[in-house]
């Protein structure tokens, strides 16, 4: 029996192994622990782990390690992990670093940062250390969800990230560059340049010299606020202190300047990129194209697409849709909806299948200018290619970013069409 179970476990057939175990009439504590609990713990079989714990308690043989394994089994269920951590306490067992760490990780993965902070407080009261890696996981989770906030978190992500950095210091765990970088990324995600700058200074105060990666995150955070002038000034200060920009730096600056349609700024950045002897990639071309698209300068967007092909950067289907999306937007913003529809034909001629966002954009643009016949024809084409579902006709999204003289409206990339 035991040999068969081990064989099934080795083959990854966990549920069959557990089912075989259940045929044992009177398993010993050693069998429960070795054949059931360990398999359940490391393969996320919640119910089997709980069953094993109950059997061990009935046998009077439960240990701290058994509780640890049950909590590990719940590493993707914060509620279950915290429940058994509390049960461990009620059973008279002292919390262990492994049990607390597993519960804390479950809270982080679930985004239940309020619970995570409460648990950290209880761990401090019991003098249980928190691993630096767990703090890093929690800080990264602060950036998940809209505005850096998730269910189970009553505070904004930036505030929570800074609280975690402070908690690290209070518990004697020195944050390194990874923790500061993760916290800055949370700031960049919500356009909080003030806190991003503060965290960068905190790094310096701790004797950690920010690298180009951290500088790029700061530029992105400033650019997210729409303050292109300050972003460029920060970039100038960065280069003056000896930091060498990389292509990601240029991509970030182009994307943020492009979002505001400041073509002259984007053109200067393009020249700077060549001065730095950096070779543009597809992302770089797309960011530059999007700037011209936002300004409705389709002739320049077309020229960039040709330049990209000439530079031996012929994109694949995914990146081609990405670039063509920007080109199509340029035509729509300029009121050239008919010309924009021809891009679909160009894609098909190149054996590139337009993706859903590309179809969404042109269909909604045609609908917005009142050309229902064109919208219907485009929708039917998309349906025939299997890109759009039959039962899901389009409508204008609430998330419309641009209005153009012709009345056409452009959707952001990734917006779904729905009834």
TrEMBL record:
Database matches in InterPro entries: PPR_rpt (IPR002885), PROP1-like_PPR_dom (IPR033443), TPR-like_helical_dom_sf (IPR011990)
Segments annotated as PPR repeats: 96-130, 176-210, 246-280, 281-315
Gene3D superfamilies assigned: Tetratricopeptide repeat domain (1.25.40.10)
Residues in PROP1-like PPR domain copies: 103-231
Entry keyword annotation includes Repeat: yes
Keywords: Repeat
Protein name: PROP1-like PPR domain-containing protein
Organism in which the protein naturally occurs: Tribonema minus
């Amino acid at each position: 029996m035991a040999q068969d179970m081990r064989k099934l476990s080795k083959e990854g057939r966990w549920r069959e192994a557990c089912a075989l175990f259940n045929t044992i009439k009177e398993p010993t504590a050693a069998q429960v622990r070795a054949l059931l609990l360990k398999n359940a713990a490391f393969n996320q079989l919640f119910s089997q782990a709980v069953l094993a714990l109950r059997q061990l308690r009935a046998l009077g043989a439960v240990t701290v390690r058994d509780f640890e394994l049950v909590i590990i089994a719940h590493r993707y269920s914060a509620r279950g992990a915290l429940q058994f951590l509390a049960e461990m306490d009620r059973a008279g067992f002292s919390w262990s670093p492994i049990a607390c760490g597993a519960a804390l990780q479950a809270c982080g993965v679930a985004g239940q940062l309020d619970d995570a902070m409460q648990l950290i407080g209880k761990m401090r009261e019991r003098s249980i250390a928190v691993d630096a890696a767990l703090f890093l996981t929690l800080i990264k989770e602060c950036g998940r969800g809209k505005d850096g906030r998730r269910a189970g978190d009553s505070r904004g992500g930036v505030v929570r990230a800074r609280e975690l950095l402070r908690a690290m210091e209070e518990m004697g765990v020195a944050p390194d560059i990874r923790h500061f970088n993760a916290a800055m990324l949370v700031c960049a995600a919500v356009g909080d340049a003030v806190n991003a700058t503060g965290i960068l200074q905190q790094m310096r105060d701790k004797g950690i010299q920010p690298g180009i990666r951290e500088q790029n995150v700061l530029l992105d955070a400033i650019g997210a606020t729409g303050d292109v002038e300050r972003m460029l000034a920060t970039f100038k200060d960065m280069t003056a202190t000896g930091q060498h920009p990389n292509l990601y730096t240029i991509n970030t600056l182009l994307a943020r300047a492009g979002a505001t349609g400041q073509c002259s700024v984007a053109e200067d950045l393009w020249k700077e990129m060549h001065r730095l002897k950096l070779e543009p990639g597809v992302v770089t071309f797309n960011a530059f194209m999007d700037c011209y698209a936002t300004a409705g300068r389709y002739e320049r967007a077309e020229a960039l697409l040709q330049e990209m092909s000439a530079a031996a950067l012929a994109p694949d289907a995914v990146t081609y849709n990405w670039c063509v999306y920007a080109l199509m937007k340029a035509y729509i913003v300029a009121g050239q909806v008919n010309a924009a529809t021809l891009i679909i034909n160009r894609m098909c001629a190149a054996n590139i299948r337009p993706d859903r966002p590309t179809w969404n954009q042109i269909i909604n643009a045609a609908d917005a200018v009142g050309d229902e016949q064109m919208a219907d024809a485009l929708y039917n084409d998309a349906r025939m290619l299997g890109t759009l579902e039959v039962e899901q006709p389009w409508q204008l999204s609430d998330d419309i970013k641009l209005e153009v003289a012709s009345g056409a409206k452009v959707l952001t990339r990734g917006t779904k069409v729905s009834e």
